Amino acid sequence: MDMYTKAYQRYVEKCHEFGIEAIDLIEFIRNLTTEQVKHMIQN
Known about the structure:
The protein is an all-alpha fold. It has one domain (about 1-40). The protein is built from 3 helices and no strands. Helix 1 (about 1-20) packs across helix 3 (about 35-40). It is globular and about 25 Å long. This is Phosphosulfolactate synthase (CoM biosynthesis protein A).
């Protein structure tokens, strides 16, 4: 779960950066694969 939390935090930061509304954590987890989350953490 920690990996999803880190990826979600990065996602929210990017949403703020681009001025768009972020989806909530539950939807974030439901819509991404583990591979996508790992990729988000690495970049």
